[in-house]
Amino acid sequence: MRGNRGRMAVALLAVVSGATVISALLDLQFDIEHQLTQQFRLLGANVVISRPRLTQTPTLDSPQPPSEILDAPALMDQPLVLRQVEKLPMADVAAAAPFFYIVAHAANTPVVVAGTWLDQIPGLEPTWRIDGRWVTARDDEADCLIGRRVARQFALVPGSSLDVQYLDRRAQVRVAGVIDAGGTEDSQIFVSLPIAQKLAGQSGGAQIELVQISVRGTSATIDRYTAQLAAALPGYEVRPIQAVSRAEGNLLDRTRLLIALMVALILVLTALCVLATMAALAMERRKDVGLMKALGGSISRIVSLFLAEVGSLGAAGGLIGSVLGVALARWMGQRVFGALIHPRWDIFPLTIALMVGVALAGALPLRLLGKVKPAVILRGE
Amino acid sequence: MAPLVEIENLRKEFGNVRALDGVSFEVQAGEWIAIMGPSGSGKTTLINILGGLDTPTSGRAVVDGTDLARLDEAGLTRFRAEKIGFVFQQFYLVPYLTALENVMLAQYFHSTTDEREARGELERVGLGDRLHHLPGELSGGEQQRVAVARALINQPKLILADEPTGNLDEANEQTVLELLRELHKEGHTILIVTHAPEIGLLVDRRVELAHGRLARSPTAFR
User: Which of A246, B59, B72, B74 has the highest CB neighbour number within 10 Å of its CB?
Assistant: First the structure.
């Protein structure tokens, strides 16, 4: 390292730069699953429990007829299902709520009324925006949430009173907030679950149509929960919300591929830089090598001396780069995910090993030293 | 007793140039021989062949029973490491290694390094206080003494010195010559290439070359 300090400094700089970016990318690579999972959790519920034949919530275009009440297989036993849901490790459940839908009337106009646990809505649907306030108490039967189209159609604002009628049963609720969901929910009214069940005339054992759960974790975690619930609820359909899971998987795969390609590219570029430096170094050290050969140095011993230098260079560059990479990963994490990336210490030895490998690969021009003739060098040619 | 060095009808050609042309002589173990002659007479070529740095075009060069013409490149490398100690006019120290490391480098190529032994060799040539100096921090005489210590560290059979005082002032020249004289007294076999007549007077015998041939039979002075 003491000879040719300028060149070695350039090579070290290349290795440090490469190691910094690679270390940061690997940090991101390993942390990205966690970060993306957090991002995807913002999309809301990812597991749904229902009867097999119920595949979608009713809309005004294709309303579930009142006959669903009569169609017992479409409904689920609320205590039974919720008991199984509550058996899940609740630390991993961001939110969960049962749903029961009816097509009721407001001001003689048909409208879909969803009975649910209103306090769980913000957790299940974190992307919804609200004008007014969320309902925070599960047993609050006086308040409701309405979609923005309902609000416009019936000229309702937070604080307005709303009468809902189903067959000969009526309920009066107060609008706590107007939600903007950007979907069919904008045309629905969300009331407390017991209100919807009473309007439907349920008595005794409560029934629900589906349960939505937002599980924290990776696709694998969600699949595990799905399998666990499916085993506990035979005859029910427990499924992950595929669109989200698939999108998550695809994005993770693409991100991993992108990072792997970038790491490979940086490794190649770093190796090329070291290669160029080593080629120049090999030329500069021809005289030293000629002398070493004259002293009885075999080419393997001489090259091993140089490789030790290059290996040390790779190790030092890898170590420095790993430390700098932590800072870069944190910065990138803040910029890309708005979240703190947690450095993984096992990336240090991996980065160092990669850099030693790259430096040694870049030392290929040292093969040229084998051709040095000591007598020629000592003659000063 | 068999001679340490046997040279028989040695020829070396570089293209159309004949650097050595039928040189023959012998060197007994413990002798100090001066190889003399004008520039281009083949002195350095002869030293290079005896040191295994070059190969003859024809003829025999046997050192300590090893016929150099029979060795391949790896064999010549091993031969240099085990049997030859070189001292060059230009010193040829590795500039980014200290005096001690330069000596240990020769140990590394021979077998394994032994710092205590290398330190001892440098103390022997009077450089005990310059162990950790780089060549650039040493005078020419000191650098040549490091080169001598490096040549001696592996107890070579033959010391080949190519104009070892050619780049030294008079004081340093005397120091290095005194060192060589001591080595000779200790029984080392030394071949020294020189232009200097006064050095020719210190040695046991002179081999004089002209145009690649022996100008006359090796002359004994003692």
Answer: B59
**pTM score over 0.80:** no
If asked whether residues A322 and A368 sit together in one domain, one would say yes
Residue that finishes a domain, picked among A240, A266, A299: A240
Q: How many CB pairs under 8 A join A and B?
A: 57
> Does the residue A245 lie in any domain?
no
Please write the tens of the pLDDT for every residue from A205-252: 688 989 999 887 777 777 888 888 888 888 888 887 755 556 666 777
Q: Tell me which residue range forms the domain holding A70.
A: 46-240
Which residue, A306, A312, A307, A326, is CA-closest to A355? A312
Residue B80 touches partner A, C-beta closer than 8 Å: yes
Between positions 115 and 154 of B, the ones with CB within 8 A of A are 150, 154
Domain-located, residue B111: yes
C-alpha–C-alpha distance, residues B97 and B115, integer Å: 14
Show the tokens assigned to A93. Answer: 């459940």
Looking at the DSSP assignment, which residues form a beta bridge with residue A241? Answer: none
Q: Tokens 């919530």 correspond to what residue?
A: A57
Q: How many structural domains compose chain A?
A: 2
Mutate to test the interface with A, among B84, B94, B107 (most CBs of A within 10 A): B94
B99-110 vs B115-124: helix crossing angle, rounded to 10: 120
In chain B, the number of structural domains is 1
- Whether A194 is in a domain gets the answer yes
A295 chain-B contacts, CB cut-off 8 A: 80-81, 86, 105-106, 109, 150
